[in-house]
Write a structure and sequence with these properties.
Layout (H helix, E strand, L loop, with lengths): L1 H31 L1 H9 L2 E6 L6 E2 L5 E13 L9 H8 L3 H14 L5 E7 L1 H9 L7 E10 L6 H4 L2 E3 L2 H6 L8 E3 L2 H5 L1 H4 L4 E7 L5 E4 L14 E4 L3 H11 L4 E6 L6 E7 L12 H10 L8 H4 L9 H10 L9 E10 L2 E11 L1 H7 L2 H12 L7 H14 L21 H8 L23 H13 L2 E3 L4 E5 L4 E3 L4 E3 L4 H17 L13 E7 L7 E8 L6 E7 L9 H14 L5 H9 L22
Parallel strand pairs: 2-10
Antiparallel strand pairs: 1-8, 2-3, 3-4, 3-5, 6-7, 8-9, 10-16, 11-12, 11-21, 13-14, 15-18, 16-17, 19-20, 20-21
Helix pairs in contact: 10-20, 13-15, 13-19, 14-19
């Protein structure tokens, strides 16, 4: 009896223990296990994301530069897929079976219970056919969203493009899910949080065959999406298109700034690309081609490339030397064809004569500014050349040269203005003097600046001593309001009288100096030519300037790689841009034709975009 009673208690204990285990498991599944709860819910409800329209990007006159259109993605919830006919769905959607299977595996790895995109951007015709047969494909549905399109194929390096989110994007933000898109470059990247808006959501009732039965609770629980804010930029579409036209077939860049506001009117980097080729199913394939293109069309030369500034640096050097009383307006040096360091080493110059600082800028005399640089570095108040060079670098840095200016697009390069520490590394402490670095005085040797820094230098000259950080976005608009962005002025510690003196010299350059062939009748232009030595080939042509002389409206830099003299190539392009912006006409059609006909990149683009057509784009 006792033995039987013990057995009974053991059996009862086992039953109670098993029951308790099932009870705990049931409570866990219902109350704790989110994946199971989501799966159970999805058997009757389908959660869909409502993607917000991305904010627009507009030029200064309200012309659309980046817009949206509706497209459709095929989504999958792997846990709900049953008896999938892979061949049938691939044929229906016109996709490669291997690509489809890879996408399915990726979705399954990401989550068995969460929707993932498996076939992107199907056509409206494919969408219609797929909807008719959707009941055959359990676990699949179609979701609408907006996609970027760029109606004018203009300013790609400024506007940027979108890319699919990475694992890191998903891990570091609750906003993004697998398959979402994010700004990958340009304004699209810098203003991502402003442009993207806020996602919404809705619940859809579906039957056992995945057919929609209507909105859950008539949509009372739906959360509407909030559209992204729009960017109102300072870009001038007509000027931007004209600059791209002038630079077609060349390597280099143009930047035009409104010196009074710091707004960028145009930014051209050539070679460029059509941002529309980085949309759609072929995006990855096209991106690979652009990356491998030896001319680097994705590289933004305007803010990331670095060049010796050449003789354009002489304007800043004159200001620093005058401010520190290294020279006066009447200080002269005589040039006899070059600056003679020794019997075996001469820095050549094409200007012969005796010049003051203004005349030396007009004629771009190397000899004069080698003397100015050496005298500046070797000032008696400095203990040695190292202290003098650091003082020189500090002066250049105050102009934003060799520093990041803080433009509102990514990948701005710093440039390089070497200091004493730089040369101590190569020569040793005390192992060098001003004669070892004399080429810095004419913008050569180790100094390298970005086109953006040179454009800003031109704006400082136009303003006679201050600048506003160069930027694209002037205001941000939502349905409710428009917020104007404030960009503070930054002043240069140099007397205005010296700025006026150097500006007069820059006017001389265009009126009867090295750039005299590029002057525009009736429009006073101030500028400075430069020719940057290039150890890898023909020199780079540079010009900086602004117009008109008083109450200037535009400051410009033009750099054309491997073109030769700045006066011959960069100056004509710059003055054409100024005339186009100020007068909206061209008085020198022969110059324009000569520039347009001059191409040396005789090659087709890496990606042919001629067949791409988007809503709202004229054929």
């Amino acid at each position: 009896m006792n033995e039987n009673g013990n057995r009974t208690r053991v059996v009862q204990g086992i039953i109670i223990l098993v029951g308790f285990f099932f009870l705990v498991r049931l409570l866990y599944i219902q109350l704790i296990d989110k994946d199971y709860r989501q799966f159970a819910s999805d058997n009757s409800l389908r959660k869909e994301t409502i993607f917000p329209p991305r904010g627009l990007i507009l030029d200064r006159n309200g012309v659309l530069l980046a817009g949206n259109e509706t497209i459709y993605d095929v989504m999958v919830i792997p846990a709900k897929v049953k008896d999938l006919d892979t061949n049938a769905i691939c044929k229906l959607l016109d996709v490669d079976k291997t690509d489809f299977e890879d996408a399915y595996d990726k979705a399954d790895y990401y989550s068995k219970y969460k929707p993932s995109p498996i076939v992107r951007e199907i056509t409206p015709e494919q969408y219609g056919r797929f909807e008719e047969r959707l009941f055959e494909f359990r676990g699949f549905f179609v979701q609408a969203r907006t996609m970027r399109y760029y109606p004018l194929d203009v300013a790609p390096h400024a506007i940027g493009y979108l890319g699919e989110v990475t694992d890191n994007d998903i891990d570091t933000s609750d906003y993004y899910k697998m398959g979402d898109y994010i700004g990958a470059s340009g304004l699209e990247k810098s203003y991502e949080k402003v442009l993207r808006g806020k996602k919404g959501g809705r619940l859809i009732l579906v039957d056992a065959l995945n057919r929609e039965q209507g909105r859950y609770m008539d949509g009372k629980g739906d959360i509407p999406a909030e559209p992204g804010a729009s960017l109102n930029t300072g870009l001038d579409l007509k000027l931007q298109q004209y600059g791209e036209k002038l630079m077609r077939g060349k390597k280099g860049s143009i930047i035009c700034i409104d010196p009074q506001t710091g707004e960028i009117l145009a930014m051209v980097s050539m070679p460029d690309y059509d941002p529309n080729v980085l949309l759609g199913r072929d995006r990855s394939h096209n991106y690979g081609k652009l990356i491998l293109d030896p001319d680097k069309p994705l590289f933004n030369r305007a803010i990331s490339a670095r060049y010796p500034p050449g003789s354009t640096l002489k304007t800043v050097e004159a200001l620093l030397a005058l401010q520190q009383h290294v020279i006066t307006k009447t200080t002269t040096y005589t040039c006899t064809g070059g600056y003679h360091l020794s019997a075996a080493h001469t820095i050549h110059c094409h200007a012969d004569g005796t010049f003051n600082a203004r005349e030396a800028i007009k004629m771009s005399c190397n000899t004069y500014y080698c003397n100015v640089f050496r005298t500046f570095i070797d000032q008696r108040r400095f203990g040695n050349a190292a202290e003098g060079l650091d003082n020189w670098k500090e002066g250049l840095s105050s102009f934003g040269l060799g520093t990041k200016l803080g433009i509102d697009i990514p990948n701005e390069a710093r440039g390089l203005v070497p200091n004493a520490k730089f040369y101590n590394h190569y020569y040793g402490v005390g192992g060098w003097k001003s004669s070892n670095v004399i080429s810095l005085g004419i913008g050569q040797a180790e100094i390298s600046l970005t086109p953006l820094q040179l454009a800003n230098q031109a704006a400082i000259m136009a303003n006679r001593g201050y600048y506003i950080t160069p930027h694209f976005v002037r205001s941000i608009s939502t349905k409710e309001k428009t917020i104007t962005l404030n960009w503070p002025k930054k002043y240069i510690n140099i007397d205005s009288t010296y700025f006026n003196y150097v500006v007069d010299a820059m006017e001389d350059v265009v009126e009867h100096g090295t750039a005299s062939l590029s002057k525009v009748p009736g429009m006073p232009i101030c500028g400075k030519t430069g020719t940057a030595e290039n150890p890898h080939g023909k020199d780079h042509a540079i010009f900086i300037g602004f117009a008109p002389k008083y109450k200037p409206k535009i400051a410009v830099v033009v750099i054309i790689e491997n073109a030769g003299f700045g006066a011959e190539w960069a100056a004509p392009v710059a003055t054409l841009m100024m005339e186009k912006y100020i007068k909206d006409s061209i008085s020198r059609p022969n110059w324009e034709k000569w520039i347009l006909d001059a191409t040396y990149l005789h090659k087709k683009p890496a990606v042919d975009s001629t067949s791409i057509k988007y809503k709202g784009v004229d054929e």
